[in-house]
Specification:
The structure holds 2 protein chains of 2 kinds.
Chain A lengths: L2 H12 L1 H38 L5 E9 L2 H6 L4 E7 L1 E7 L7 E8 L11 E5 L9 E5 H6 L7 E6 L2 E12 L19 E7 H7 L5 E9 L5 H13 L7 E2 L4 H41 L2 H9 L4 H41 L11 H28 L2 H5 L11 H4 L8 H12 L1 H39 L4 E10 L1 H7 L4 E16 L2 E10 L8 E2 L5 E2 L6 E4 H8 L6 E6 L6 E10 L7 E4 H8 L4 E9 L4 H9 L4 E6 H10 L1 H44 L4 H37 L13 H27 L3 H6 L3
Parallel strand pairs in A: 4-9, 6-8, 14-20, 17-19
Antiparallel strand pairs in A: 1-10, 1-11, 2-10, 3-4, 3-7, 5-8, 6-9, 7-8, 12-21, 12-22, 13-14, 13-18, 13-21, 15-16, 17-20, 18-19
Chain B lengths: L14 E14 L2 E14 L3 E5 L6 H8 L7 E6 L2 E2 L5 H11 E4 L11 H9 L8 H7 L15 H13 L5 E5 L7 H18 L2 E5 L11 E6 L2 E7 L12
Parallel strand pairs in B: 3-8, 3-9, 6-7, 7-8
Antiparallel strand pairs in B: 1-2, 1-4, 4-5, 9-10
The chains are: A alpha+beta, B alpha/beta.
The structure holds adenosine-5'-diphosphate and magnesium ion.
Magnesium ion binds next to helix 1 of chain B.
């Protein structure tokens, strides 16, 4: 090993604190990259494999009822590879020991053997026995939420008749990776589940013997889904078909795709921000570290070491650090990635996880860290090398001290001598001070990005449930029901207020833009459920038209108020109607199209009917109300907002918190790395000066004040700048997180600021303490022995 | 003993350095500092030359220019066939690597390398160096090979610096106040080491001091004042370092 390499190893060891701190900065950036990208890649790969292995359909259609004889004609539609008919129905479920209302989606399985499409992955147990009357397979989410196992019994009210079902197995399906009750905002695994029963038994219970109400199909390669859908729609039109749709619009897959799209944004944006900031900080930190080695560069040069050799030496030094940081980042990121994927799999149910860490991720990590470190090094080494060696070996060029601005404007009497030294030192090198401030500010800003989602999600929930959908309970009926039901429910004990709503599936069209949505008719003067204007105040939905969520209007349909929207009603009289867009509403979760209930009912020509009821009730009255409603045959689902929020917190909330925690942790490691390095570098740059002051009789406290006072001043100055950086970075996040599932609001709570500031200040205090310790070890004699 | 790997060594009367009209101006913000105001100089192989002068008279500046560590503002300076005032960065690096050994007032050892490794850092890139151990023997430090600079006294550190400077068998040894930071007893040991190198290896040695007492060990004494050579004399009798005191 050459002497220079030995120097390298020893220097690294001597600077190990700093080395680790720099590595921590890189680690933070790289771990974010690896975590986000590997989670995204893994979920994508897992999804694709699951879809492929279990024959997930590519085209789906629902209808009222068609004879099985139609199946052959459907299968003959050109482009169809495999087609399967099914009976699918909603049912109320009763789980022993669970009082709340629960709803199940029950799909039929062939009476013999496994389905050809949308096959089940059995986690436990087996498929129902052939022609079994009462055996059922239950989705794993529902089974796990109720700790159900094969052999257990649950009650089901199918088509108004109560039946006892026996669990034969617990399964996952590519069709129900994401499970959410109709009309619900979030998954609720206790109150919604998917069940599978033998076709015969389910058909009997639904008067569907020899008939079907659901079709799914796969296509031959290269077939365009729309052509097949159009043909199927034609065939089903006479049988109450409500419009076929491709896999792209399949409910579970749609959510999953949107979520993956979001994740992809996360996987690009977060690492870009984190790695970008880390790279900048790395560059700053490395160049300052190299600057402290200026005299060594000069010595090597005096010995006749060439520029290349010296450059290579320092390059090796930082590349070792970068490599250390990258390896730590990859290890940590992979670990977080696996954990994050598993958190995802709590609400996106896959039978397995194919964890994927593409080599490309390593390459990106290495390249970014390497380039950032190398450019910082080479620029600084280059600068040091351009100096004649004689110059480099001189102690730093005699500093031109000046009285500071503060002193010139006559404020000096407010400052002690050491304070004046601090101010002069900062003012003398404003550029360096600014870089330090910017570095710490970036770390502070990152902290805010990492911690931001928590508050944003809380805010979204608050707007959704305390301003817009303020009902305690949303009740849905099996079919549109006469308005009289509203009054009956109003008279239940404990019910305070009721508002009826009508909803209908519809295709919304404007120009070439199309969106399939539920069109809601609500009471214009309702106080429980209403639309919000852009200032988040309740607005009255005007008569004779529709109001749309801003995202739906602007991003999806590209309509403006005043435009005419084409609506294809997919239920009832299935008319195609034209209505004016009358306004834009604000909503963070999901997208909605609202009309007045009367307007919608007039368009449907069905008289005054409702699909469900929003209600508020007395505190504590919910148990009685659930029970009474559950007993009504026309009542299908009940969604309680308290439960929705609770289940959100248990599923997606957990994910947000996990992600929040990880990003905050990584941001904190970056923040610490930066602040600690600033302290170390200040110490090595000024050690001699401080030791001289010690020799002159300054106490350790006094020189400590001079050194740490500067760091403290810069840190304090950096925090407000950091807040601005944080707001900016969060703004970038808000602009990119923009999907029909949710839009993040740009809200930063006081605790976001407090958290970011405390992490930065905490890092400063710890770094200060470490520097303080080193001050005690300053070698006073060395100052007298050498230079100056 | 005669390890003369550098080609031009043999002839004692051969001119190594020749300088004409050297000036050096340092810009210092609005003012400038004139460190050298026209220096003419000839230095021959094997000589031991002492540069005398008060602090600030331009000694270090002159030495740094001779050593290729700095460039003159005007005038020419040649090292044998090489015009240092026109040399490229690469030529200067090469010149320093193979022909010059430096000893600085503040030793400038690399703190993270041992005594042996400090010397090895130079011999590794030299063309025909002696072994680091041999160089250290010559300055009487053969027994401290594996110590770090911080574990040595100032005099010992300076002797390491000398070993490091001579290990490449340089044609010239440039020493900038090598005893400036040492007490006189330790200083004598260091000077003895330099004297020995000069005598045994025939290395042209230029030694800066502002201490007139040291001048007695030189073949030639050159006195600088305010950037000019004000006196040049040849010692008829050369004292050995042991006999010096200051
Ligand atoms: N890099 C430099 N920048 C500005 N002035 C310098 C620099 N180096 C030397 N000087 C000035 O040049 C003059 C001569 O310096 P120097 O050669 O170091 O003197 P000596 O070694 O004789 O004490 C001094 O006035 C010194 O302050
Ligand atoms: Mg000098």
């Amino acid at each position: 090993m050459t002497a220079l390499d030995k120097k390298l190893l020893r220097d690294l060891w001597l600077m190990r604190g700093q080395v680790l701190a720099i590595a921590a900065v890189i680690m933070g950036g790289v771990a974010t990259l690896v975590m986000a990208l590997s989670t995204y890649d893994s979920l994508l790969t897992t999804r694709d494999r699951f879809y492929r292995d279990y024959g997930f359909g590519q085209v789906f259609a629902s209808l009222k009822r068609a004879p099985e004889s139609l199946a052959g004609r459907l299968a003959d539609v050109p482009g169809v590879a495999t087609l399967e008919t099914r009976v699918v129905t909603l049912a109320k479920l009763e789980v022993p020991g669970f009082a709340d209302p629960a709803v199940g989606m029950i799909a039929s399985l062939p009476d013999h053997g496994a389905p050809r499409l949308n096959r089940l992955h059995l986690k436990r147990g087996r498929l129902p026995a052939p022609y079994s009357e009462n055996e059922t397979v239950v989705s794993d989410t529902f089974a796990d939420a109720h700790k159900l196992n094969p052999g257990d019994r649950i009650g089901a009210i199918i088509n108004g008749k109560r039946q006892t079902l026996i669990l034969s197995g617990v399964a996952l399906s590519p069709e129900y990776v994401y499970q959410i009750a109709p009309g619900a905002m979030f998954p609720d695994f206790q109150r919604y589940g998917v069940l599978w029963m033998g076709r015969h038994a389910l058909a009997m219970a639904n008067n569907m013997n020899g008939a079907f109400n659901n079709v799914s199909a796969t296509l031959t390669p290269g077939t365009k889904p729309q052509a097949v859908i159009d043909r199927i729609d034609e065939l089903l039109a006479a049988y109450g078909g409500i419009g076929g749709y491709s896999r792209e619009y399949q409910f579970s897959n749609r959510f999953l795709s949107e979520e993956l799209k979001q994740l992809k944004t996360t996987a690009t944006l977060f690492p870009a921000i984190f790695l970008g900031v880390a790279a900048f900080l790395l560059n700053v930190v490395v160049s300052r570290m190299i600057a402290t080695q200026r005299d060594q560069i000069a010595i090597l040069k005096a010995f006749g070491y060439g520029d290349l050799m010296i450059g290579a030496h320092f390059l090796k030094m930082v590349l070792v650090i970068a490599l250390l940081g990258v390896s730590m980042g990859i290890a940590l990121g992979a670990w977080f990635g696996v954990s994050l994927s598993h958190v995802y799999m709590n609400f996106y149910r896959f039978p397995y996880l194919d964890y994927v860490l593409r080599p490309m991720v390593f390459v990106i990590a290495l390249a970014v860290a390497g380039i950032a470190a190398a450019s910082g090094t080479l620029l600084t080494v280059g600068r040091a090398m351009r100096l004649p060696p004689a110059e480099g070996m001189r102690p730093d060029t005699p500093e031109v001290y000046r009285t500071t601005l503060i002193e010139r404007i006559g404020l000096q009497r407010w400052f002690s001598q050491p304070s004046r030294m601090i101010l002069r030192h900062i003012e003398r090198r404003p550029w360096k001070a600014m870089l330090t401030i910017l570095g710490i500010a970036c770390a502070c800003g990152l902290m805010m990005v990492g911690d931001y989602q928590r508050g944003a999600v809380e805010y979204m929930l608050d707007v959704q449930f305390n301003r817009s959908a303020r009902e305690d309970l949303a009740v849905t009926f099996t079919d549109p029901t006469a308005i009289g039901a509203l009054h009956e429910i109003a008279s239940l004990p404990g019910v305070r207020r009721v508002e009826g709503f009508r909803d209908v599936s519809a295709n919304l069209r404007f120009d070439q833009h199309k969106y399939r949505a539920a069109l809601y008719g609500i009471e214009p003067d309702g106080i429980l459920h209403h639309a919000l204007d852009t200032d988040l105040n309740a607005v009255r939905v005007p008569p004779g038209g529709v109001v749309l969520t801003d995202h739906l209007a602007e991003r999806i349909l590209h309509v403006r108020p005043g435009d005419t929207l084409t609506i294809e009603l997919l239920e009832g009289n299935r008319r195609v109607i034209e209505v004016p867009v009358l306004g834009i509403t604000k909503q963070y979760l999901g997208v909605s199209a609202y009309m007045q209930r009367d307007t919608l009912n007039r368009l449907l020509r069905e008289g005054d009917v409702i699909s469900g009821v929003y209600l508020s009730h007395d505190p504590g009255a919910e148990a009685g109300i659930y029970k009474r409603l559950q007993a009504r045959p026309r009542v299908l689902g009940q969604v309680a907002h308290a439960n929705a929020i609770r289940s959100f917190n248990a599923t997606m909330g957990e994910f947000v918190l996990f992600f929040n925690m990880i990003s905050a942790l990584l941001a904190a490691s970056i923040a610490f790395g930066v602040v600690y390095n600033s302290a170390r570098i200040a110490l090595s740059e000024r050690g001699r000066e401080l030791a001289s002051l010690r020799v002159l009789g300054f106490s350790r406290a006094e020189i400590g004040y001079i050194l740490l006072g500067e760091l403290g001043t810069l840190t304090l100055a950096a925090i407000p700048v950091g807040f601005l950086v944080g707001i900016g970075l969060c703004g970038v996040l808000v602009l990119s997180f923009n999907s029909e599932l949710y839009r993040l609001p740009l809200v930063l709570e006081p605790y976001n600021y407090a958290m970011a500031a405390s992490v930065v200040l905490g890092s400063a205090v710890v770094s200060g303490l470490l520097a303080w310790r080193s001050l005690g070890k300053l070698d006073l004699v060395a100052v007298l022995k050498t230079r100056e | 003993m005669t390890c003369r790997h550098i080609p031009y060594h043999s002839d004692m009367t051969q001119t190594i350095f020749s300088a004409q009209g050297l000036t050096k101006v340092y810009p210092m913000g609005e003012v400038t500092v004139q460190a050298l105001r026209g220096v003419d100089l000839l230095l021959s192989a094997g000589e031991l030359v002492v540069l005398l002068g008060p602090s600030g008279s331009g000694k270090s500046t002159l030495l740094n220019i001779l050593g290729g560590l700095d460039t003159a503002t005007s005038g020419t300076v040649r090292y044998r066939d090489l015009d240092l005032s026109k040399a490229s960065d690469k030529e200067l690096t090469n010149y320093r690597r193979h022909h010059v050994g430096f000893v600085f007032q503040f030793y400038n050892l690399i703190p993270s390398l041992t005594v042996r490794e400090n010397v090895a850092a130079v011999t590794e890139i030299a063309r025909a160096p002696m072994r680091p151990e041999e160089a250290l023997e010559r300055v009487g430090l053969g027994h401290r090979l594996d110590h770090f600079p911080a574990q040595l006294s100032g005099g010992e550190q300076q002797r390491v610096a000398i070993a490091r400077a001579i290990a490449k068998n340089p044609a010239v040894l440039l020493c900038d106040e090598p005893t400036g930071a040492l007490d006189s007893q330790t200083g004598v040991v260091v000077l003895e080491a330099l004297e020995k190198v000069n005598r045994e290896l025939g290395t042209l040695t230029v030694l800066i001091t502002h201490n007139a007492g040291i001048a007695d060990m030189a073949d030639r004494v050159i006195r600088l004042f305010d950037g000019r050579i004000v006196e040049e004399r040849r010692n008829s009798t050369k004292k050995s370092a042991k006999e010096l005191s200051w």
